[in-house]
């Protein structure tokens, strides 16, 4: 695999305040990375730093092996071979679709420009719209134009800031799959910012979860879901509910049963929480006694009913007020029932990262 992007300990400050610190990551040709994290964690700043709109306070960025960018060696955006697609697409309203696409390739001869525009119009299914203006297009079509314009100079890396947030929810999935296929066909390396974890699972090969200017975890979406490395990652990805426990020897006691810590690595339960993924909780069918939870809220989903459960009759230090359970069974609000934890690999974290 050939490396396209390599970040080593990238740091950015605004007004003397650290906004990004110690960001290191690598992307190979054709890989698509989804940047996820809560509002204000620095996702857009990272894109802007890569694009060259923001100067670094520390670290190094290497593009395609030979271009090196550091605080002492800033390279202007137009020389980085990076294409950027903004959330609002930022198309020029007074230019046609074809003229928008031509914007970054005016150095090419007229015939080369024409050729490239016609290829891109075809690739992005815009052939009919070359002479139209942006306001005459749908949101999805405008986005395709933005992508065509960014691809026209044949960048080494494509940056997309919340590319799907303005797209109708019904079209979003279809468009994501289509654009992913296109990027794969072109072997285009891309980084996109999103708030939506489902977009990462549809669109990305890798996910980077950020928090307070730091990169907490980088990996394949499935790996990060199976093995989140801290509370913030699991919580942001909403991988499950958090319940307290008490540890005695290698036995964990929770409000819904006891578990054995086979890894022997669990720390005392104080300030620590057990991650309960919905698939690891089950209703004890036919049990009329020993109820340990009450149904607090019910919502309907494609996977059946989603129940929010709260513990009942638990001592204060083990009580919880939210445990998610998905089931096809119809339960009533306020109903008491008994649930248990299925044997599984336990994931325990503390909220405190320091
Ligand atoms: N030009 C600036 N000057 C000073 N502070 C800034 C500037 N731009 C962003 N910030 C601050 O940097 C932090 C990171 O902002 P950024 O926009 O990168 O976050 P984000 O993760 O993209 O957020 P969102 O998901 O809400 O778009 C925030 O605390 C923000 O207030």
From TrEMBL:
Molecular function GO terms recorded: ABC-type ferric iron transporter activity; ATP binding; ATP hydrolysis activity
UniProt keyword list: ATP-binding, Cell membrane, Ion transport, Iron, Iron transport, Membrane, Nucleotide-binding, Transport
Family matches, as InterPro entries: AAA+_ATPase (IPR003593), ABC_SmlMolc_Importer (IPR050093), ABC_transporter-like_ATP-bd (IPR003439), ABC_transporter-like_CS (IPR017871), ABC_transpr_FbpC (IPR015853), P-loop_NTPase (IPR027417)
Any single Pfam family the record assigns to this protein: ABC_tran
GO cellular component, one term: membrane
CDD domains linked: ABC_Carb_Solutes_like (cd03259)
SUPFAM superfamilies xref list: P-loop containing nucleoside triphosphate hydrolases
Keyword Ion transport: yes
PROSITE patterns for the chain: ABC_TRANSPORTER_1 (PS00211), ABC_TRANSPORTER_2 (PS50893)
GO biological process: quaternary ammonium group transport
Annotated ABC transporter domain residues: 5-237
Stored PANTHER family: SPERMIDINE/PUTRESCINE IMPORT ATP-BINDING PROTEIN POTA (PTHR42781), SPERMIDINE_PUTRESCINE IMPORT ATP-BINDING PROTEIN POTA (PTHR42781:SF4)
Protein name: ABC transporter ATP-binding protein
Organism: Thalassomonas actiniarum
């Amino acid at each position: 695999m050939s490396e396209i992007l390599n970040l080593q300990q990238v740091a950015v400050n605004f007004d003397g305040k650290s906004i990004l610190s110690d960001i290191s990551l690598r992307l190979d040709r054709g890989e698509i990375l989804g940047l996820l994290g809560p509002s204000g964690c620095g996702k857009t700043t990272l894109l802007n730093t890569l694009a060259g709109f923001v100067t670094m306070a520390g670290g190094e960025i290497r593009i395609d092996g030979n271009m090196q960018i550091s605080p002492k060696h800033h390279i202007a955006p137009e020389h980085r071979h990076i294409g950027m697609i903004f959330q609002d697409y930022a198309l020029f309203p007074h230019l046609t679709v074809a003229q928008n696409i031509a914007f970054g390739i005016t150095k090419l001869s007229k015939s080369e420009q024409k050729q490239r525009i016609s290829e891109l119009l075809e690739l992005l299914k815009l052939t009919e719209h070359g002479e139209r203006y942006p306001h005459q297009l749908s949101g999805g079509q405008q986005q395709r134009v933005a992508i065509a314009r960014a691809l026209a100079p044949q960048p080494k890396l494509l940056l997309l800031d919340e590319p799907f947030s303005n797209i109708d929810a019904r079209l979003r999935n279809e468009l994501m799959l289509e654009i992913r296929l296109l990027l794969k066909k072109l072997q285009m390396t891309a980084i996109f910012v999103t708030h939506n974890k489902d977009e990462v699972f549809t669109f990305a090969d890798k996910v980077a979860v950020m928090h307070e200017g730091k990169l907490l975890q980088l990996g394949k979406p499935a790996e990060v879901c199976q093995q989140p490395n801290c509370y913030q990652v699991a919580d942001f990805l909403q991988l499950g509910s958090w319940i307290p426990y008490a540890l005695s020897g290698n036995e964990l006691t929770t409000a819904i049963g006891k578990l054995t810590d086979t890894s022997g690595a669990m720390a005392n339960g104080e300030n620590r929480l057990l991650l309960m993924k919905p698939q690891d909780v089950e209703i004890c069918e036919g049990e009329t006694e020993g109820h340990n939870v009450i149904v607090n809220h019910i919502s309907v989903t494609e996977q059946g009913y989603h129940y929010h459960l709260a513990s009942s009759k638990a001592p204060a230090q083990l009580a919880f007020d939210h445990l998610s359970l998905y089931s096809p069974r119809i339960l009533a609000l306020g109903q008491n029932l008994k649930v248990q934890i299925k044997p599984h690999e336990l994931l325990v974290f503390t909220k405190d990262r320091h």
